Amino acid sequence: MVLRLHSELRVPERLLVIDAAEQVRTSYARHFEAAGFAVRTVACFSEAQRLTPASFDAVIADVCQPTADAPDPAIAAALRGTGAAVVVLTAYGEPARAALAARIGVADAFLHKPVSLVWLEMLLRGRIAARRHGRRGAPAPLPA
């Protein structure tokens, strides 16, 4: 009984989704809300800056948008400073950009769209769990 009560009181992971495409934001919100996340969506980085980024456990950001309002490494670096797990998604990125992001450590993962939302959910849960257990510098392994 106590275990059941504890699980019912569990605080959901808080997720921020930044993507210019409304359909993508809606799709991600539906999936992650159904999976138990509390989701907030915004269209661009400037909208995200008006929020309190530190209040999120994870951020999914499409930062390589053709109309991005800031250079993508700068966006990811700013998000990285929040303590949230940061996953950068792009449909426009080049391999060199992904390599640069990895070298400077701006994100937990730099992925090319399309991405399986089930796989992305597992990735985020692993990264969030790693941070909660104090393994911030060593991200959890990627799901298989």
Mean pLDDT: 76
Number of helices in the DSSP assignment: 6
Q: Which blocks of ≥5 consecutive residues have pLDDT under 50?
A: 66-71, 137-144
Order of helices and strands: HEHEHEHEHEH
* Count of folded domains: 1
Helix content: 40-55%
CATH architecture: 3-Layer(aba) Sandwich
Task: Give structural notes.
By secondary structure, this protein is an alpha/beta fold. The protein has a single domain, classed as 3-Layer(aba) Sandwich (Rossmann fold). Helices cover 42% and strands 17% of the residues. The chain has six helices and five strands. The protein has a five-stranded parallel sheet, sandwiched between helices. β4, α5 and β5 form a beta-alpha-beta unit. The protein is globular, with a radius of gyration of 15 Å. The C terminus is likely disordered.
Name the descriptors.
alpha/beta, 144 residues, disordered C terminus, 17% strand, 5-stranded parallel β-sheet, Rossmann fold
Explain the layout of strands and helices.
Layout: H1 2-8, E1 14-18, H2 22-34, E2 38-42, H3 45-49, E3 58-62, H4 72-80, E4 85-90, H5 95-104, E5 109-112, H6 117-132
Parallel strand pairs: 1-2, 1-3, 3-4, 4-5
Overview in brief:
The chain has 144 residues and is α/β, with parallel strands linked by helices. Helix content is 42%, strand content 17%.
